[in-house]
């Protein structure tokens, strides 16, 4: 302690008092440092750091934007795929319906044609049958008269006998398909040719029925 | 017995002036006498500038080495000191605070650099100048941001006190703000570095004295272990004192800039 008091009292060489030369050099060095740091060194480091911050922020922004763009594209793409799927399903459904319609149409038309054909056939056959019957009737009548004339030997009143025959045939006709056979048995004495010819015409009528 | 080299390397325990006072080797006898302390100041200036110039020129996207050190310290001073202690409007002081931090740190760390072993701040010159400079700076900042009357009113008459108390408070505030602040700034830095310097010298000289071919040599490990431990401790002190003077400067500037806090 005594030494410290002595030191403090020593004057210019006192170790706890500042030395002029050190004040001058220290102040000079520090002021130069502050000026150069403010003007030169600090701004260059700071600007590099700011540039990096900016760079990173830009990069992050870019990445964000790219990601959101990709998201949009993806959503768009997914929507397109869904649309395409829907469209495909619709087209298939439509095609199936068209095919169904077509099939139904064709079937209907074929059925209609078949029915028409059958109808026409039936009509044709009916007409043919009528014609054949009428023809047959005429021939039978004529044959019958001729036959009767031969049997009786005399001449029957042509008009009257025709009337008789007509009546008979009509009676047979109303008895349906069995008539010719019936006629055959009833006219037992009559020539078999008539009966066989009537029976020959009959199968068509039978098929018709 | 004592050679100049052993003095320069602080191997001997010299008289008290001799461990902190260094003879000039340039401009001797003038006010610009240039000695080891002045060379340390120049070193601190050049080292700080070199660190930042190299870092500023590299500009790598991923900083390494010197660039990493400079950028980390800029970030630390920006976020750990300026944003905490000054807040809004503190950015213009960043270069000054950064320069002061590194200037003080490099001056301090010379304390443990082998062959140099002399902290510039164990001399009163630089701590005193820094304390005064910081005081002038925060007064100027306060006057510029609040006006002379506003600054004096805010710093000497804290609001919300009974009028009678100002007879007591105002002198205390004056002494604490304008006298104790610079004094505590300079004494804290100076005394810490001088004490560390003396401690290191004490154990170094003790260890050197026990480096003898006699039975006393068995005690050699004790001062040597202390010396190693204290060297590590002084590295921490060198950083801590630089940090403390920087954050106190920021706190004082912040107080002058934002009196409402």
UniProtKB/TrEMBL annotation, chain B:
The chain crosses the membrane at residues 37-55, 93-110, 122-143, 189-212, 224-257. It comes from uncultured Acidimicrobiales bacterium. It is found in: Cell membrane; Membrane. CDD domains: ATP-synt_Fo_a_6. It holds the Pfam family ATP-synt_A. Key component of the proton channel; it plays a direct role in the translocation of protons across the membrane. GO terms for molecular function: hydrolase activity; proton-transporting ATP synthase activity, rotational mechanism. SUPFAM superfamilies: F1F0 ATP synthase subunit A. GO terms for cellular component: plasma membrane; proton-transporting ATP synthase complex. InterPro entries: ATP_synth_F0_asu, ATP_synth_F0_asu_bact/mt, F0_ATP_A_sf. Its main location: membrane. Keywords: ATP synthesis, Cell membrane, CF(0), Hydrogen ion transport, Hydrolase, Ion transport, Membrane, Transmembrane, Transmembrane helix, Transport. This is ATP synthase subunit a. It is a multi-pass membrane protein. The gene is atpB. Belongs to the ATPase A chain family. HAMAP family: ATP_synth_a_bact (MF_01393).
């Amino acid at each position: 302690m005594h030494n410290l008091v002595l030191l403090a009292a020593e004057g210019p060489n006192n170790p706890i008092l500042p030395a002029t030369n050190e004040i001058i050099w220290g102040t000079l060095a520090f002021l130069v440092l502050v000026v150069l740091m403010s003007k030169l060194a600090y701004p260059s480091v700071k600007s590099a750091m700011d540039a990096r911050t900016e760079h990173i922020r830009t990069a992050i922004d870019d990445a964000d934007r790219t990601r959101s763009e990709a998201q949009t594209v993806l959503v768009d793409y997914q929507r397109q795929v869904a649309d395409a799927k829907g469209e495909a399903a619709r087209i298939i459904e439509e095609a199936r319906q068209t095919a169904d319609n077509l099939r139904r149409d064709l079937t209907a038309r074929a059925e209609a044609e078949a029915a028409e054909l059958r109808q026409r056939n039936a009509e044709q056959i009916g007409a043919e049958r009528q014609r054949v019957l009428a023809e047959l009737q005429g021939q039978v009548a004529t044959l019958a008269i001729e036959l009767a004339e031969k049997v009786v030997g005399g001449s029957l009143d042509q008009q009257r006998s025709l009337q008789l025959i007509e009546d008979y045939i009509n009676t047979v006709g109303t008895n349906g398909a069995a008539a010719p056979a019936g006629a055959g048995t009833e006219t037992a004495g009559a020539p078999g040719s008539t009966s066989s010819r009537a029976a020959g015409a009959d199968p068509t009528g039978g098929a018709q029925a | 017995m004592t050679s100049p080299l052993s003095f320069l390397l602080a191997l001997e325990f010299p008289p008290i002036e001799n461990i902190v006072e260094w003879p000039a080797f340039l401009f001797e006898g003038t006010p610009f006498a240039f000695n080891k302390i002045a060379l340390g100041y120049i070193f601190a200036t050049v080292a700080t500038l070199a660190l930042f110039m190299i870092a500023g020129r590299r500009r790598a996207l991923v900083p390494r080495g010197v660039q990493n050190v400079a950028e980390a310290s800029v970030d630390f001073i920006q976020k750990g000191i300026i944003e905490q202690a000054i807040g809004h409007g503190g950015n213009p002081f960043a270069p000054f605070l950064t320069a002061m931090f590194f200037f003080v740190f490099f001056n301090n760390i010379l304390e443990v650099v082998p062959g140099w072993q002399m902290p510039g701040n164990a001399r009163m010159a630089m701590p005193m100048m820094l304390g005064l400079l910081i005081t002038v700076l925060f007064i100027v900042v306060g006057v510029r941001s609040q006006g002379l009357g506003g600054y004096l009113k805010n710093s000497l008459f804290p609001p919300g006190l009974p009028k009678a108390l100002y007879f007591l408070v105002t002198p205390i505030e004056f002494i604490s703000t304008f006298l104790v602040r610079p004094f505590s700034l300079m004494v804290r830095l100076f005394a810490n570095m001088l004490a560390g310097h003396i401690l290191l010298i004490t154990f170094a000289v003790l260890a050197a004295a026990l480096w003898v071919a006699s039975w006393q040599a068995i005690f050699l490990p004790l001062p040597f272990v202390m010396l190693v431990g204290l060297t590590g401790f002084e590295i921490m002190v060198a950083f801590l004192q630089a940090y403390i003077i920087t954050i106190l400067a920021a706190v004082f500037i912040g107080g002058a800039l934002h009196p409402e806090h």
